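Need tokens for this chain, all 542 residues.
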Amino acid sequence: ELAGEDDDDDDDDEEEDVVAVRSSTRELALEFAGIGATLVANDTKGVRRELAYARLSRLRVARRTDAEMDNFELQIGDFQLDNHVPKALWPTFLSPVKDEENANQNLVQVSAITAHHGDGTSSLRYFAARLLPLDILADLSSLTALAAAATTIPLELLNSDFELATKDPAEWARRASHVDGRSSKKGALGKVVTTGMTTTTKTTTSPEEDADVQVVDEASASPSPSASASALSLARKRSLRRRGYIDALVLHPLVATISFEPTPSEAEDVRLGLLSYVQTLAAISRAELKLSSFVVERLIESRAALVGRIVRHYVVQALMQLHVIVGSMASIGSPVNLVSNIGSGVQQFFYAPAKGVVESPQAFAAGLYKGTTGLGSSLVGGVAGSVAGIGNFVGFNISMLSGDQKYIAEREARRRKFAADSGGATAGIVEGGASIFRGITDGVSGIVLSPMEGAKKEGALGAVKGLAKGIVGVPVKAVVGVMDGATTVLQGISQSASSVKVTQHLRPPLNLQQIPDSDQFFIPSKHDVTLARLVRPPKEQG
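Here are the structure tokens for all 542 residues:
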């Protein structure tokens, strides 16, 4: 308008161009407050129940596309996978680790920007993915229950190709012979198209296409400028079909704290493969794995090769963290955790006063108190936890001398339950006293009960064996009881000094009740009765 009437026509043309560009823009955004999924299957005793529950919170997926750019964004505010397996050691399989710094951040953040070029190709301008630290807790009995449930899932539900290959192998083979959506017909001819700078391969299926290729071959000896430009554009398009150009790709560091307990499984016949041998491994206590970031810039690479580079990067990073796994084994006192706890306490001892001295004398005094107590808690908690881990391992090996499998199993169950509950110093003192008393009473009662149990199984010979077992069990169980009392007190002190909190269930497990003479279940509620179409699998599928 300030330029005058002479520019009105140009302004109208520009406005039309802007409107045309805007009209080609497409946007889509999906937001969910939460999405939950539950796994219902038969447990190791054949009872239909909920084994796991997963929930995504604050999920947002957005995409904006125009002629030049494609923007994609994925946000997951929170995620938790609850463990509802009976007698599970921990309430969760997986949960995020939130602190003061990341309390309000999304658990998962993915952003991608793709640029579209005039010749029909596209390139990845920017891709970034970030995942907040995770807490992974697993015990062998829970993994056994999940693996047993997975073996009852029909494979055709997971892979449609499996069902097609089983019912119609010929149709499956015909579809598999298609490459990039085109059938590989017999008699296809491969011709090399040579230009001034690039050599590419073209597959032809007809004499007409073959003639076109021959013309290109003859003209390539002295290409014109327009022909060279066209050939370069064609070569670029074909090259980028196999390989993509990436301006920047950033995968932020991955941090996970892993705990594992080789709890005995109640399953008798479960197809687990390698998991069946994990029972002999020692417990892993809060092994913190840190995998460094993966960053590439200005890269031309195929998708398969890029995925291979990413996999190799994280495999190497994981192998470099094996010392953390070994150093977090409770049987050797978790020396890595001990050093980490003391190191964090020393850091807090110097950092808290230094932060307060720049604010005010009162803040310096508060920082000095905070740093001193933090150092003391880290030192006491780290040493107590390390000694308790060694004591538990020694106590378990001594308890094996009793030969009483029932006693050994009950002792391990009590020990693991106390470790999972994190009751603190008070609970440790109470449980420690109970362990000493229980060790003495179990030893004395074993002199009477062991011969009786042996007589029921093997008669007089069993009674003699039971008497010998009972006599040996008196000193063994008494010593183990005293050791358990001491280690339980130390473990309680370590729990009180630690700032780690156990994440609880999002909700109680579903109370499934089967409808009489039906394959359906219902979930009783305070307000109504909700039918659950959780059909029992056929007997032949377990």
